[in-house]
Amino acid sequence: MSHLIAVLPGDGIGPEITQQAVRVLEALGLPLTMETAPIGGAAYDAHGHPLPAQTLDLAKRSSAILFGAVGDWKYDSLARELRPEQAILGLRKELSLFANLRPAMLFPELANASSLKPEIVSGLDILILRELTGDIYFGQPRGLRTAGEGPFEGEREGFDTMRYAESEIRRIAKLGFEAAQKRNRKLCSVDKANVLETSQLWRDVVIEVSKDYPDVELSHMYVDNAAMQLVRAPREFDVIVTGNLFGDILSDEAAMLTGSIGMLPSASLNASSQGLYEPIHGSAPDIAGQNKANPLATILSAAMLLRYSLNEEAAAVRIENAVRKVLADGIRTGDIAEAGMQQVGTQEMGDAVLAAL
Ligand code: NAD
Hints:
This protein has helices at 14-26, 41-47, 53-61, 86-94, 118-121, 166-181, 197-210, 223-232, 244-258, 296-308, 313-328, 346-356; strands at 3-10, 32-36, 64-69, 99-105, 125-131, 143-146, 156-159, 186-191, 217-222, 239-242, 265-269, 275-279, 331-332, 342-343. By secondary structure, the chain is α/β, with parallel strands linked by helices. The longest helix has 16 residues, at 166-181. Nicotinamide-adenine-dinucleotide (NAD) is lined by residues 13, 69-72, 85, 88, 261-262, 278, 281-287, 293-294, 297, 335.
């Protein structure tokens, strides 16, 4: 059976980098059908909407989406619902993509790119699972009001509600354990159970789910400690699972451990393992169309697509090993180049990965 992959290049460097990832996917000899559709600003220009009906339909029919990036300053004056970024929010909502997977992997060859000492981060390989559709970002009630009786009476007051239902915690916890089973079988659940009721429920439910995964070692950590441990001894972690707010912050912290934005892939999954795969960086309009962008984050996103949506672990590893070989050979795009290394463009980096495959 052939898998349908929706290829949504988007704006800026999006088309250049997805093109290289598509070449790599095509070279694997797997039964894949790839269909391309516009998204973001490109879709607005062509169809008057950042997520046109045909693109959404393709995304829904597909097993997985390979996404480039969206956005350009020239769309900043559009109404909010027509801005390119709305396309990602729309896809998340329409496909119920509730789990965000962000690996932070530092190839030993790039250890000098991190702001931390190489001996702390070299060989780093952690996966952060962030819940994407609940928590304080979506909880009701929320708003601005004038404070009532009490010490702040008459002042403007802002308030938000942190909340999770147990089914929401259970489904992300399950994914956390399953991801750990595909890796080193260690899952660290991050919460603030010493202070927050929502976190206490989070911890209780994660412990309940753990009974179905006796082969995974579960630990718990408060979010303040997790923030410290990520810079002190990040290699102690395997998979981290956490809520939307804590995950937002910790996943960016973890990304910076690696120091190279052009290298980091990500995935957003739903309950049926359908997923959207994209580099964590944006559309980089400053270098678009100049054959300068690093395509490796997108190529590594394609590897995640094979692993998490198509269950093609061997093919995913093949891609990752090819990237490793290219880096070991000293081939670099400008963003990760060091003195004395062979600097190449987007297209040539794609060629090098294909050759290494
Ligand atoms: P950005 O990530 O696009 O770029 C930040 C810096 O990193 C730039 O100097 C850029 O040249 C560089 N860079 C990014 N990716 C690179 C790559 N693959 N290779 C080499 N260099 C790379 O962030 P920004 O400049 O703040 O945002 C630009 C646009 O992207 C905005 O419109 C923003 O809204 C959008 N954006 C989109 C996404 C997304 O599609 N998921 C994410 C973030 C930002």
